[in-house]
Amino acid sequence: MNPIKSRREFIRDLGLSAAVLPFVANLPSLAGLAKGHRKQRLVIMFSPDGIVPNTFWPDAEGTDFAFKEILKPLEPFKNRTLVLKGVADRVRGDGDNHMRGIGCLLTGVELFPGNVQGGSDTPAGWSSGISIDQELKNYLQANPLTRTRFGSLELGVMVPEYADTWTRMSYAGPNKPNTPVDDPYQLFAKLYGQKKDQETLESVLDDLKDDIAKVRSVVAAPDRKILDEHTTLVREMEDEIRVSRTRDVGHAVPPLEPGVRRENDKIPEISKLQIDLLVSSFVADSARVATFQFTNSVGQARMTWLGIKEGQHDLSHEPDSNAAAQEKLTKINQWYCSQVAYLAKKLAETKEPDGSGCLLDNTLIVWTNELGQGNTHTLNDIPFILVGNGVDFKMGRSLKYGQVPHNRLLMAIAHGFGHRIDRFGNPDFCGAGILPNLT
Amino acid sequence: MVRSKTFQPEWSTFYGGNLSLLTVTCQNTGSAMMPNRTVRSTLGLLGSALFLGVTLFAPSAVGSPPAPQKGSDIFRARCAVCHGPNGEGGVAYPRALTGKKSVAELSRFIQQEMPPGPKHCSKEEANLLAPYLFNSFYSPLAQERFRPAQVSLQRLTVRQFRNAVADLVSVPHQAVPNDPPTGLYGEYFNGRDTNAKTKVFKRIDPEINFDFGTSAPAADKFDPHIFTIAWQGDVLAPDTGDYEFTIRSDQSVRLWVNGWKQPLIDGHIRSSNDNEFTASIYLVGGRAYPIRLEFIKAGQGVDDSKQRKAKPPGKAFVSLLWRRPQHATERIPSHCFFTQTDVPTFIVDTKFPPDDRSTGYERGSSVSKEWDDATTAAAISTANYIVSNLADVTGVPQDAPDRKERLRKYCERFVQRAIRRPNNSEVQRIYVDKQFDSAANPEIAVKRSVILTLISPRFLYREIVAPGTHDPYAIASQLSFGLWDTLPDAEITRAAAAGELASPENLKNQASRMAADPKAWNKLREFLFHWLKLDDVPDIVKNPVHYPGFDVASVSDLRTSLEIFLEKTAWNDRSDYRDLMLSNTTFLNGRLAKIYGVNLPTDAPFQPIALDSAERSGVLTNPYLLSRFAYLDASSPIHRGVLIVRNFLGRMLQPPPAAFAPLAPGLHPDFTTRERVAFQTKPDFCNACHGVINPLGFTLERFDAIGRLRDKDNGKPIDCTGSYVSKNGMFTKFTGANDLAKFLATDEEAHAAFVEKLFQHLIKQPVLAYGPTTLNELNAKFVENRYSIRRLMADIVLSTITKSSGKQASRKVTQDESN
């Protein structure tokens, strides 16, 4: 017997009508029913304004290397980490490097000409192509085995409330930027709102039935029919909610600390809430792909909790000779790294629902940035730090390449998910195929 | 027009037999046919009319074949003596003849048992009797038909639900601003944003349609390289449905509609060369919504003003369009723009199943799973909206020290307004206090209270007024739902609470006030479209070879033309029904003028034109209506005639026995349309109905498939004579549309039909449920008030308050007595 069913059949077999469908969103995806397939996941984390090369890149290549200051938080996951130096964003065209840095980072293709003027170069618009996270989402959603409720989640922390080329990295297609959700309460509503609605509704249905009975008792006999029918409908709804709840192999709705305001000084709290919700969504198998964007390209986080008063972008323009600034930038980037490490830790501590190891065994985190270095605005040596075993790359290594186009890395990640594309973004940068030496 | 008293033709004396009407199957016909259920309920009304001893206003069915009615003959001859003439029972057998046997079972029973004694009915007799009994009074369905009309418990219609929720949640404000529509305010800035320091002037722009070229809005006041304009005000949504807004511009643009949080269209980043931005929003008709369009001719991102100014200025244009329900994409016209900016209105955009229309008008007579699901989903989305905008909606700040208590008060008022009466202690306990006392936080309490209220029978069902009891809140509700399809406003609620509605004078004044409100126009407008069968029109397509220029844009303009006509005739101070029938004004713009042979500039706006004024008369000769009731290439006297018979004269027509395709013109190339129709409907079984339909439809033969005046059809002169025999036997001859229109403007039958249809639309109950004389009295008032439709609306609603249906209603009590 074929164990794979369509979602509709699956829901039908649970005895649920279409009416209750909105409430069964937390059911496991069909993929959960298919044994022997691991749930590969991808999280792309973004932090802005380049890094400090001296305190970021390990000196050695191969398996025997040491983390420098910025990457230290990843020490516990060193054997699950892959450091890729010498990968470059070779896309040119309209827009300044910050704009192309973020707009071409996941798309590998030029920005459209437009009306957004950067600090230099010609004005540009949105990206002219889809981003790799959305490409993979579409690939996974097309297959009933890997289809999930959302497919992908676009998250952020303190992303400015305006949409322009500097604030968007995920694209559903040309001219179609996705807006990251940077409010944990909004994210919570997206993930668990329907379940909460269902609970609220259920809590008032007894009162409703009582009151219909009361109204019924005072209307004329011929009019009772419509109220009787109404009562039956309320009972049916109650039954459906009950069924959907008992069938919900569910995942408890995670607690959410209330009242965290959306402001600069709360970035650590917001970041933690967002990461926790992301991990919860993986447990519920609501999505397999996520982007996680700290602020924006040219981001100006002021990391007061590290004792740093200046905005990050302003600091990133300081020359290498300004040791104090470089030290602060090192601390800033180390903080971002600590968030990557926190995500890795949570994923490592959380068991796969089917008992086959932990989430990190099946999740690839890619931590990246729109620039190689802030004060040069270089698009060479774009940081790509890979953590986790979501694809079959050989982890625990530091690799160095000769400024190969990052399109080849994006393709390699797709291949890691079984999506064997031979080009992604601008084909001129895909000629030599996927990035070598990864597996 | 020639009138003469004649003998009533045989077919019109019979009410219940098998009637027939030719069906034509083509793109426009579906709606011309009446579903079976309509006929049944007609019979039901008829039955009840007979029951009440009133036949004057029983709608009569038109036409019947002279088929033998042996079943009834046999019944009269052999059964009625014991069972009574309608099976209601007699002296010998006092019980009514009702039951659940099938026709076959009945027949067998009659053969074996009836009449008692030695000689039962023969098989042949029984086979005729059984279906007659079954259909006339025996079966439960037949019983239903004969049940006296009564006021029944009704839920809110979907339209009423959407309106009520909008008025409940949003800060109360007028449905549309008081000042007439003129355009939007445009604020012009000499800079790259809307910084007040750079503001140059503010003016009213009737439409948003500007091509600035390489210059500025005012050459001496702006730098043509960089300027910003923000247009703002209200936009009127005439109908309920999806509104597709489109901005055409080569610059940065953003559009907000009914909400400031998110732009509906965000085109402030230019990317690629696409100069068109489109997005849709669902809006409820008859309301004005805040709208804002920002236009920025400047670079975004880092300020590049210097580089720009070093080069010659580029071009710039912007226009704002929409595609509203039943229309093509067009520039938003100035008559939909107000300079006043209202607060946004919460709109339920949940998809609902359509309401029952089987009796010819929308009503909330049944519940279904789909309806319950939709209602619940709408309640949840409303509660979520309130909770996520809690401070804005309730006016209670996040950090108010007494927040919980104030939110409880908010919910208390919410419940009161929803159920249209003060909360009794039980309602207060269940709907408010219990939720606040048990919920973990005030947000959850508000959410529970709102959801429970919106799925409560006290909100969802209309109240029933008990006769003899004065229930001012039920009266207020009857007025507002009757005239507005929504909740009572603050004024009528105040009057109810102050006990003012016990005075007939006050009641009348309130009804007059409410009947003059734009919300009443919105409800009347919906009625008029329904009455004219133009509420849901399929695409009107004409042969482009014969009707060049008659494209989707023209059809859309034609509908606008009709909308303007209806508003100008039915909603002025006179609001005179006769104007609807007789006004010879047609509203045309440049595009339509070209098609209908009037000399106007191409871009002329809509204006009153005396189009073929000698030949046109009222709404029946409106080109949109005539185009809709016509074919690709030809007029359709049958569709036009059916509309007149059913909707203007209130006569009943049964659907034809089978579907017939209209004869193709090519089969009889010499025929005119009139000759072809007459030829096809010649057989007796057609003529029963078509003898009535065709002579009415033929009077409009001077108007072709797009409602254009013509002198010849197929090269022959046009015969536009026609006739009608009214229910009282009056025979009238007409020549052309003017004659017909005069007849409809003055004929009592036509008045009565209009009054009854409007009654049904407003009240959503059968008029007979309010007593056998109500319709008569309303007719008399209609005449007395010089056919003022607005007065009629008020009188109709008042008639349901001052009258009740006696015995039936006396069993009912109001919901308030439940505590």
Secondary-structure map:
The complex is a heterodimer of chains A (439) and B (819).
Chain A (H helix, E strand, L loop, with lengths): L6 H7 L27 E6 L6 H4 L24 E8 L8 H7 L7 E7 L6 E4 L4 H10 L9 E7 L13 E3 L2 E2 L6 H33 L4 H27 L19 H17 L3 E8 L17 H5 L6 H27 L13 E6 L15 E4 L9 E9 L1 H10 L23
Parallel strand pairs in A: 1-8, 1-9, 2-11, 5-8
Antiparallel strand pairs in A: 2-10, 3-4, 6-7, 9-10
Helix pairs in contact in A: 5-6, 5-7, 7-9
Chain B lengths: L1 E4 L17 E2 L11 H16 L18 H14 L19 H11 L9 H16 L1 H7 L11 H12 L14 E6 L9 E7 L3 E5 L13 E11 L3 E9 L2 E6 L7 E3 L8 E8 L3 E11 L2 E2 L3 H6 L5 E8 L6 E2 L5 E2 L30 H20 L1 H5 L8 H17 L5 H14 L3 H13 L2 H4 L11 H13 L5 H8 L6 H12 L2 H14 L20 H19 L6 H6 L3 E3 L1 H6 L11 E3 L13 H6 L8 H12 L10 E2 L12 H8 L3 H14 L14 E2 L2 E2 L3 E5 L4 E6 H11 L1 H16 L10 H11 L4 H14 L4 H4 L9
Parallel strand pairs in B: 2-18
Antiparallel strand pairs in B: 1-22, 3-4, 3-6, 5-13, 6-11, 6-15, 7-10, 7-13, 8-9, 8-11, 13-14, 16-17, 19-20, 21-22
Helix pairs in contact in B: 1-5, 2-4, 3-4, 4-5, 8-12, 10-11, 10-12, 11-12, 14-15, 14-28, 16-28, 17-26, 22-24, 26-27, 26-28, 27-28
Sheet-strand content of chain A, in percent, reads 5-15%
What is the oligomer described by this structure? heterodimer
Task: Give the overall pLDDT of chain B as a whole number.
Answer: 87
User: Please, how many helices of chain A?
Assistant: 10
CATH homologous superfamily assignment of the largest domain in chain A: Alkaline Phosphatase, subunit A
Spatial strand sequence of the major β-sheet of chain A: 5-8-1-9-10-2-11
- Straight-line distance between termini of chain A: 36 Å
Task: Please provide the count of β strands of chain B.
Answer: 22
Q: What's the architecture of one domain in chain B, going by CATH?
A: Sandwich
- Which stretches of chain A of 5+ consecutive residues score pLDDT under 50? 1-35
